[in-house]
Design a protein that fits this description.
CATH architecture of the largest domain in chain C: Up-down Bundle
Largest sheet of chain C: 2 strands, antiparallel
Structural class of chain C: mainly alpha
Mean pLDDT of chain B: 85
Number of strands of chain B: 12
CATH superfamily of the largest domain in chain C: Cytochrome c oxidase-like, subunit I domain
Bound molecules: heme-A, dinuclear copper ion, copper (II) ion
Distance between the termini of chain C: 41 Å
Largest interface: B-C, 92 and 99 residues
Radius of gyration of chain B: 28 Å
Number of helices of chain C: 21
CATH class of the largest domain in chain C: Mainly Alpha
Strand order of the largest sheet of chain C: 1-2
Shape of chain C: globular
Strand content of chain B: 15-25%
Helix content of chain B: 40-55%
Mean pLDDT of chain C: 90
CATH topology of the largest domain in chain C: Cytochrome C Oxidase, Chain A
Order of helices and strands of chain B: HHHEEEEEEEEEEHHEEHHH
Largest sheet of chain B: 5 strands, mixed
Number of strands of chain C: 2
Helix content of chain C: 55-70%
CATH topology of the largest domain in chain B: Immunoglobulin-like
Strand order of the largest sheet of chain B: 3-2-1-5-8
CATH architecture of the largest domain in chain B: Sandwich
Low-confidence stretches of chain B: 236-241
CATH superfamily of the largest domain in chain B: Cupredoxins -  blue copper proteins
Distance between the termini of chain B: 81 Å
Low-confidence stretches of chain C: 1-15, 639-652
Strand content of chain C: under 5%
Oligomer: heterotrimer
Chain lengths: 203, 329, 652
């Protein structure tokens, strides 16, 4: 717990210096809580999945006859997304060490891989041969992958902002929340995909 | 905290609780039971009530006593004694409620198990709910729009729904269960009192929800057999027969439409006494209600499941019945 | 430390910007800009829908259901938020322009007009919340008056069935999502940062955004009355599959819940971060006032549970507009899934609607009994207990729903056990009053009203938790009685207590004590007269959500309706008192209740940045009766003898 905070020069001009009562920074904690809540949103979708596939006494086949899931293509896509987590980590390490080129390269690579993932998924949608109305199977498939796709999109938006700012030189080894926080989110999106992939395609 | 005052408040609480219980017993909280299951529910209810009245009496007595005894004058600026807690007391008021709710739980679980148990040889009746009507199918496959049960015979109802969720409840029987599309639910009832009761739908199921009722009769064995016979031969009880009036009643049309021959006066849909159209139009209006909308009414209100739930003969009979009834005669 | 908090002090005041003139006014944040941005976003949404449908060769290209969802219910509100300036700071940040963290022009209020702008001051936001929520309380209450008039006699008199169902659904939706939940958020917004010794919330701009989502959600609910087919009419629970095939008004519920839910998630996140990272020095968790504890636990509930209701409403809406099959049984969907997902939020939600009230009551009872809270630690722990248990009881709303039978007994047991931590709180409050010096001011009256009425409501909850009794009582007026005993006798009473308690702090003026007491007694009588007979009516056989009922209940319903008008009328006194006192009430001293918690140690109303210097907390918040005890030292004063030792001493 820090000692007496605040100094009188701020009286009447701005707020007193807030006491920092925890080691974790507010924005990082905020992002973690946000992710907890996002995870629960996925939880709601997984619950729907569970009901449709496991609980329902009249459960249909999975995948619904006669459709097939492109397990291999999606597997490659998974690999892409997992790799992008590593480049993200690299970007963050770089900025911490003051390596601007590494930061920029890491972010750009992550961004590109994220885009590739999203594009592949869109192509997959176009060719998959069924749509959300094809049984509860189609519904859950598009529900979960679509929800995840939306998160990839948000993640990419955050990363794009971080990249632009990285090229403008806004981050320093001391101040890089702008990279760290989208990074945390990106890792979450990544982990979530592994779960989605496993439950939808593999099991 | 002084021991004396605790004793005093307990005494006040017991007195208040006894008085409240006496009053409570005089009020007929529950409808007069007409089934074994309801008897058990009543027992659980009173068991819980006694405990709860006791608790409320203690809380109320404590509030009243404090307010009367410890009230300070407005200008009294003194503070009370700085008591921060008392571990013993805290344990007591954690443990006692825990014991009491455990008791309620155990009693409830036992009663639940008994109420779910049909015994070896139940009478099985299939109940079908749809907006806004009930249909009952007896073991010999006769169907009826009202439920007739023999007394003292355990009955196992299986509930199905054709559209949205409905709920089966006869207050005097106590038992209640939703009828859910896609799932079959069951309900056990052992009627014990001859009489006529109302079956109510208790799950909001659309505009006709409030009027989605059916008649329930508990009769003795002989009357039950007689009923089945009548139902099977087609008079009196509406079978799948070509009796338009019966179809009108079982399909629940009267929940939304006024129709003089049937004696209904609901106003959700247009009155059927003066339909502006021929038989084909009437048929279409029933099978595909949204095809042509009556003036001043909205689509999507009248169920569009009748082509599935009614047989062709029933439909013919219904259309006939409606067109015969034109002009309100 | 965060960038946000950091930057707030390290530079000076921004130069005063002259108010924009002429065309510049169209670009400055405000309602004028909101007008055109809303329209622009709407048009964009419309174009988006039309474009994609054209691309996919759908016919017709303009489907008004989808346009409603995308353009009216999603993008237009975003346009509005952009227009009033809720996103300005982030827009600057994203575009890489320098942000102006030192600009406090959106902080604090100097005139009433500032309350209609995007404001980042938690005290202003707190008041904004309260005024907005009470507005919706009146609307929701007036709806109750209309349908109570209808229910006074059997058969239909004033409204048709569709309108009736619409009214009860709107009534509940407004009361829950736009009154109780956000009113607590408003009170906490005002009080929690002050109580923690923090200059503001951790994310002031997010805080402002959370507030502005609320009027959007509320107006969305109300707008449902205007679309063909009328308002959503499936109850606040809006069960599938009924809700999937309703007139268009239903999507206004689906989407309104999303906006209200987003608002409450963001607020909860903000509270959690504030409480964890911005406590004043010396303010350990075990020295936090119980209101803070209550909001801490509530916020955890909100963050974890709320996404589930978002999910459930999305599913219903998708089933309708995208022809998915989440709950369509003939296509492999599972109808009961909706209820599980819905109640997994909505049961915790009832504690979201109660725990902050518990916090308020703890403050009020300690102060007006002039005694420390009895068993402070157990009070905090029992909140946590309710939080954990609250997640394990959702299926008690589904005892008759046809779910797996084996789930019933476990859910019954967990529901019952909640009586234990709740009981600990009730008995601790009673013990706090015991031997105290009780001052029956209005907040205390409401606290006592709460104590008795909530116990009644909680006990009827115990009846319902018992499966056999619930089987008989479910979906009858007994449930309606339970709902109102816990929500009105519980939550609303605590909100009234809180508003009266902090009124001097918020407005700098005292309310009228006699009117306050009159309000309490009329409310108390009206409340019991309205809701107590419902227990009996329900058990005897009157289902809920019916516009028409059997003759035998006619007399009692007439009684209920008459009392409900009295209950409504009693609210007029409250509003008169508040408005009148806000204008001309006597000036309030800084600490009219002689309370120890931090918000009372500053002026009324508090300075713009709460404290000149962050206070130093030296002891627990409720050390009444210990001579010279203090909770905190302000403005660099000397710390007195720490009372914690006395604390242990007194714990016998
Ligand atoms: C503020 C909101 C709130 C609160 C706090 C509660 C609290 C409780 N509720 Fe309630 N409930 C609702 C709001 C709330 N409820 C609403 C809105 C609905 C209807 C939803 C709908 O369908 O529209 C509902 C419905 C509802 C049902 C479903 C009924 C049905 O639809 O069939 C059940 C069933 O178990 C239930 C149980 C309980 C229990 C066990 C508690 C417990 O938490 C109560 C605990 C408190 C006490 C017990 C009193 C104090 C304790 C003591 C003094 C100790 C000693 C006590 C004993 C030994 C018993 N509630
Ligand atoms: C916090 C929540 C809350 C609050 C405060 C209230 C307040 C009231 N409620 Fe409500 N209610 C619910 C939550 C709440 N309710 C819920 C969740 C349901 C379940 C819905 C469902 O089934 O889905 C429900 C359902 C419900 C029903 C059952 C409907 C049905 O099933 O058919 C009834 C019936 O009487 C009712 C009545 C009332 C009344 C008379 C008030 C009164 O207390 C209102 C008093 C307030 C005012 C009137 C407004 C202010 C007054 C003025 C400005 C004065 C001017 C007015 C006059 C003098 C007329 N409510
Ligand atoms: Cu069927 Cu209500
Ligand atoms: Cu509950």
């Amino acid at each position: 717990m820090s000692a007496h905070a605040g100094s009188s020069h701020s009286v009447g001009h701005g707020p007193p210096i807030a006491n920092q009562s925890s080691r974790v920074s507010a924005s990082v904690l905020g992002m973690f809580l946000f992710i907890a809540s996002e995870a629960m949103l996925f939880g709601a979708f997984f619950t729907a999945y569970f009901f449709v596939r496991v609980v329902n006494p009249e459960a249909q086949s999975w995948p619904l006859e006669p459709f097939h899931l492109p397990v291999f293509v999606a597997g490659v896509n998974t690999a892409i997304l997992v790799t992008s987590s590593f480049t993200m980590h690299w970007a963050l390490q770089s900025v911490k060490r003051g390596n601007r080129a590494g930061l920029q390269a890491g972010l750009v690579l992550t961004l590109l891989m994220g885009l590739a993932f999203l594009l592949t998924q869109m192509l997959e949608y176009a060719r998959i041969g069924f749509n959300p109305g094809d049984g509860a199977f189609g519904t859950i498939f598009f529900g979960l992958t679509g929800l995840h796709g939306a998160h990839v999109f948000v993640g990419l938006t955050l990363l794009a902002v971080a990249t632009v700012r990285a090229f403008r030189g806004h981050y320093t080894p001391e101040h890089h929340h702008g990279v760290e926080i989208p990074g945390i989110y990106w890792h979450f999106v990544d982990v979530m995909w592994i779960v989605v992939y496993a439950t939808i395609y593999l099991i | 905290m002084r021991r004396g005052s605790i004793v005093r408040i307990t005494i006040y609480g017991v007195i208040a609780g006894t008085l409240a219980s006496l009053v409570a017993v005089l009020v007929p909280w529950l409808p007069t039971s007409a089934s074994e299951e309801m008897d058990r529910i009543e027992f659980t209810f009173w068991f819980t009530t006694v405990i709860c009245i006791g608790i409320f009496a203690i809380v109320a007595a404590a509030i009243a006593y404090s307010v009367l005894k410890f009230r300070a004058a407005d200008d009294d600026e003194r503070d009370g004694p700085p008591i921060h807690g008392h571990t013993g007391l805290e344990i007591v008021w954690t443990a006692i409620p825990a014991v009491l709710v455990t008791a309620i739980s155990v009693v409830s679980a036992v009663v639940l198990a008994k109420n779910d148990d049909v015994g070896a040889n139940p009478l099985r009746i299939a109940v079908t709910a749809q907006q806004f009507a009930w249909r009952f199918e007896y073991p010999d496959e006769t169907t009826s729009g009202s439920l007739v049960l023999p007394i003292d015979q355990p009955v196992k109802l299986t509930l199905r729904s054709l559209d949205v969720i409905h709920s089966f409840w006869v207050p005097e029987f106590g038992q209640k269960s939703d009828a859910v599309p896609g799932i079959e639910t069951t309900l056990v009832i052992t009627p014990t009192r001859i009489g006529s009761y109302s079956l109510l739908c208790t799950e909001l199921c659309g505009l006709g929800h409030a009027t989605m009722r059916a008649q329930v009769q508990v009769v003795d064995r002989a009357d039950y057999e007689a009923f089945l016979e009548r139902a099977a031969s087609g008079d009196g009880a509406p079978a799948g027969a070509d009796d338009g009036e019966a179809v009108f009643a079982t399909a629940g049309c009267g929940g939304c439409h006024a129709f003089e021959p049937a004696g209904t006066d609901a106003a959700v849909g247009p009155s059927l006494d003066e339909i502006d159209g021929d038989e084909a139009f009437i048929r279409e209006s029933i099978v595909d209600p949204n095809a042509v909308l009556a003036q001043g009414y909205q689509g999507g209100v009248m169920p569009n499941t009748y082509d599935k739930s009614l047989t062709d003969e029933q439909l013919d009979a219904l259309v006939q019945y409606l067109s015969d009834g034109q002009g309100g005669n | 430390m965060t960038e946000l908090v950091h930057s707030a002090y390290d530079s000076h005041h921004a130069p005063a910007v002259p108010p924009p003139r002429g065309l510049a006014r169209l670009r400055a944040p405000g309602y004028l800009r909101a007008a055109w941005t809303t329209l622009l976003f709407w048009a964009f949404g419309f174009g988006l829908v039309a474009f994609f449908r054209w691309l996919a060769h759908y016919d017709p290209v303009v489907d008004w259901t989808i346009v409603t969802v995308v353009a009216f219910l999603t993008l237009a509100p975003l346009g509005f938020l952009t227009g009033i300036g809720a996103f300005d700071y982030w827009a600057y940040y994203v575009s890489g322009r320098p942000t102006r963290p030192e600009d406090h022009s959106s902080h604090g209020a100097t005139s009433w007009k500032d309350y209609f702008r995007v404001n980042t001051d938690h005290k202003v936001i707190g008041v904004q919340y309260l005024v907005t929520t009470f507005f919706f309380f009146v609307i929701g209450g007036l709806m109750a008056m209309i349908f109570r008039a209808e229910l006074a006699k059997p058969d239909l008199q004033f409204v048709d069935t569709q309108t009736f169902n619409g009214l009860i659904s709107e009534h509940a939706a407004l009361m829950i999502f736009l009154f109780i939940i956000p009113a607590f958020a408003g009170l906490a917004n005002f009080a929690v940062p002050l109580m923690l010794g923090a200059p503001d919330m951790a994310f002031p701009r997010l805080n402002a955004l959370s507030f502005w989502l609320l009027p959007i959600a509320g107006l969305m609910f109300l707008a449902a009355f205007l679309v063909p087919g009328g308002a959503f009419a499936t109850g606040w629970t809006s069960y599938a599959p009924l809700a999937s095939d309703q007139p268009l008004g239903q999507v206004f519920f689906n989407m309104g819940v999303q906006w209200a839910g987003a608002s409450s998630i963001m607020t909860a996140l903000n509270f959690l971060v504030t409480i964890i990272t911005m406590r004043a020095p010396g303010m350990t968790f075990w020295r936090m006032p119980l209101l803070v504890w209550a909001n801490f636990t509530t916020s955890l509930l909100v963050v974890i549970a709320t996404p589930f209701i978002a999910g459930s409403q999305f599913f219903v809406m998708f089933d309708r507009i995208m022809h998915t099959n989440f709950f369509r049984v003939d296509e492999g969907g599972y109808a009961l899934g909706y209820q599980h997902i819905f109640w997994f939020y909505s049961h915790p939600a009832v504690y979201i609607m109660m725990l902050p009230g518990f916090g308020i009551i703890s403050e009020v009872i300690a102060v007006f009994s002039r005694k420390p809270i009895f068993g402070y630690r157990l009070m905090a722990l029992s909140l946590m207990g309710i939080l954990v248990l609250g997640f394990s009881v959702w299926a008690h709303h589904m005892f008759v729903a046809g779910m797996a039978p084996w789930l019933r007994v476990p859910m019954m047991v967990t529901s019952m056990i909640i009586a234990v931590p709740t009981g600990i709180k009730i008995f601790s409050w009673l013990a706090t009053m015991w031997e105290g010096r009780i001052h029956l001011r209005t907040p205390m009256l409401f606290a006592l009203g709460f104590l008795s009425m909530f116990v009644l409501g909680g006990l009827s909850g115990i009846f319902l938790a018992s499966v056999p009794i619930d089987i008989a009582a479910s979906d009858t007026y007994f449930i309606v009685a339970h709902i109102h005993y816990v929500l009105f006798g519980g939550s609303v009473f605590t909100i009234f207590a809180g508003v009266y308690y902090w009124f001097p702090k918020m407005t700098g003026r005292m309310y009228n004590e006699r009117l306050g007491k009159l309000h309490f007694w009329l409310t108390f009588i009206g409340f019991n007269g309205t809701f107590f007979p419902m227990h009996w009516v329900g058990l005897q056989g009157m289902p809920r959500r019916v516009s028409d009922y059997s003759e035998q209940f006619g007399n009692w319903n007439m009684v209920v309706s008459l009392f409900s008008f009295l209950l409504g009328a009693s609210t007029i006194i409250f509003f008169y008192n508040v408005i009148q006192s806000w204008h001309r009430g006597p000036i309030a001293p800084g600490n009219p209740w002689r309370a120890l918690t931090l918000e009372w140690q500053v002026s009324s109303p508090p300075p713009v940045f709460n404290f000149d210097e962050i206070p130093q907390v030296v002891a627990g918040p409720y050390e009444y009766g210990i001579p010279g005890a203090r909770h905190a030292v302000l403005n660099g004063g000397h710390a007195p003898v720490v009372a914690d030792a006395v604390h242990e001493e007194a714990r016998r």
